[in-house]
Amino acid sequence: MRYVLDASVALKWVLTEPDSAKAQSLRDDFRRHLHELLVPDVFSLEVAHALTRAERRGFLKAPQAIRLLADVLSTPMPTHANRPLLARAVVLSSTMRCGVYDCLYVALAEREGCEFLTADDKLVTNLGPQYPYVISLASMP
């Protein structure tokens, strides 16, 4: 199966959170070539931002963020340039009233004809009815 992978799912590879086991299983399946995972360029930036924010809030001790970032990035996924996706992401953002960053992932999934897998349930609630290829990690077996 092909998925556009949200940073929220990849963060569960290195942080103990609800559905971390499902995220790790997906990563393991990717490594065994059972799934293809795609990401937009912004993916690594979003992961880095979330990890450094977790450090600042005291959920991680410095310098864990850099080590955890390296762990996430050790899973080499095909990265797609943001620029060709940007116009569609802006239209989606304006129409659906959600963030452009999230809409880059949606635009990539739309272009690639695959599902966008996220751990952001609010995003699934807001976009899922209109874009059924936006699916929740929690819904995965």
Q: Can you offer a commentary on this structure?
A:
With 141 residues, the protein is an alpha/beta fold. The chain has a single domain, classed as 5'-nuclease (Rossmann fold), CATH 3.40.50.1010. The chain is built from seven helices and five strands, in the order βααβααβααβαβ. The protein has a five-stranded parallel β-sheet with strand order 3-2-1-4-5. It starts with a strand and ends in a 5-residue tail after the last strand. 33% of the residues are buried.
- Beta-strand content: 5-15%
The order of strands across the largest sheet is 3-2-1-4-5
Helix content: 40-55%
- Domain tally: 1
What number is the mean pLDDT? 96
Radius of gyration: 15 Å
Measure the end-to-end span: 13 Å
Largest sheet: 5 strands, parallel
Q: Return the CATH class.
A: Alpha Beta
CATH level-four homologous superfamily name? 5'-nuclease
Low-confidence stretches: none
Figure out the total of helices.
7
* CATH topology term: Rossmann fold
Number of strands: 5
Overall outline: globular
CATH-level-2 architecture: 3-Layer(aba) Sandwich
Structural class: alpha/beta
Summarize, please.
By secondary structure, this protein is an alpha/beta fold. It has helices at residues 7-11, 20-31, 42-56, 64-73, 83-96, 100-112, 121-127; strands spanning 2-5, 36-40, 79-80, 115-118, 134-136.
